[in-house]
From TrEMBL:
GO terms under biological process: siderophore-iron import into cell
Subcellular location: Cell membrane
Protein's name according to its UniProt entry: Iron complex transport system permease protein
Pfam family, one: FecCD
């Protein structure tokens, strides 16, 4: 744990906020079309209708805001998932959220010829929510109720089922494959502020609710028996955390597609910085997640310029070494 006192953590939080704002500004400035910091400033203070100003306002600004928002949401969802499942590798993928969202979009494209990115957003959100609710219901059945092992197994089963259905539909419909392949790889390219605005209220509600629930997550992380002994209604807390996960991960996947590794890696980095207190881990994870996705998105523009790779591929390249380290080290899921 790097930051041990509340004062240090507050300072670190402010520095992280400044760093994320700087990275968001860098995302607006750098890309295939050459622009400068001065040009970006003028685009918002003295817009003149040039191609560069249009790109800055209508393409890069939404992209930067969406990357920061999605990264923060996935990281915070990852914190809650790892605490709920006691699984250090838990993520939206293990809850079946990514697979459910992807399947819903592929069904819409294959069977109903949906081609609007705005429609993708709501369809993906619905699919993600259905998948997460299914996992929760299946994981809650039986005498013992909801347990970390049952939740993890239910998530793996739902993810495998939806992934199989998705692959089957794409094999049968090559046109659908071409249409949704970039979205399925995870990307913030081409998204508009309207896409973010449509789900931002849900993401904001998830952020606020996660912070409100953070003290109870501290108690829950001590173990089921200890939490009950301290008077915590563990079933209600788990239900609340599950709903927050649906809002955060479902909304993030709906906007940007299934972006991996953010929800796995960032919570561990946040714990290494501030310890296991969820009152600090959750906001730090949000900021670090936003920063990581912004860095990945900027890097994705330059790897094979003038082409771009999906940011989901970039996060996989960045996150895989950390994933292997976490798996080998065997961090606990608190």
């Amino acid at each position: 744990m790097l930051l041990k006192t509340s004062g240090q953590r507050w300072v670190g939080l402010v520095i992280s906020m400044v760093a994320m704002i700087f990275l968001a500004c860098a995302s607006i400035v750098y890309g295939y079309t050459e622009t400068s910091w001065k040009m970006a400033y003028q685009a918002f203070t003295d817009f003149n209708g040039t191609n560069e100003h249009i790109i800055i306002e209508s393409v890069r600004l939404p992209r930067a805001l969406i990357a920061a928002t999605v990264g923060a949401s996935l990281a915070m969802a990852g914190v809650l998932m790892q605490t709920l499942t006691k699984n250090p590798l838990a993520s939206p993928g293990i809850f079946g959220v990514n697979a459910g969202a992807g399947f819903a979009v592929v069904v819409a494209v294959s069977l109903f010829s949906v081609g609007s990115l705005q429609a993708y957003t709501w369809i993906a959100f619905l699919g993600a929510a259905v998948a997460a609710i299914s996992v929760y219901v299946i994981g809650s059945t039986g005498r013992e109720g909801l347990t970390p092992m049952k939740l993890t197994l239910a998530g793996a089963a739902i993810a495998a089922m939806f992934s199989s259905f998705t692959q089957g539909l794409l094999v049968l419909n090559e046109a659908a494959l071409e249409q949704v392949l970039f979205w399925l790889a995870g990307s913030v390219q081409g998204r508009k502020l309207e896409n973010l605005a449509s789900v931002f209220p849900y993401l904001l509600a998830g952020w606020v609710a996660a912070m409100i629930l953070s003290p109870k997550m501290n108690v829950l992380s001590m173990g089921e028996d200890v939490a009950k002994g301290l008077g915590l209604n563990t079933g209600l807390v788990k239900l609340g955390a599950g709903i927050i996960v649906i809002f955060l991960s479902g909304g993030a996947v709906a906007i940007a597609g299934p972006i991996g590794f953010i929800g796995i890696v960032v919570p561990h980095v946040a714990r290494a910085v501030v310890g296991i207190d969820h009152r600090w881990v959750i906001p730090y994870a949000g900021l670090l997640g936003g920063m990581l996705l912004l860095v990945a998105d900027i890097a994705a523009r330059y790897i094979i310029m003038p082409q771009e790779i999906p940011v989901g591929v970039m996060t996989a390249l960045i996150g895989t070494p950390f994933f292997i380290y976490i798996a080998r080290k065997g961090f606990n899921g608190r």
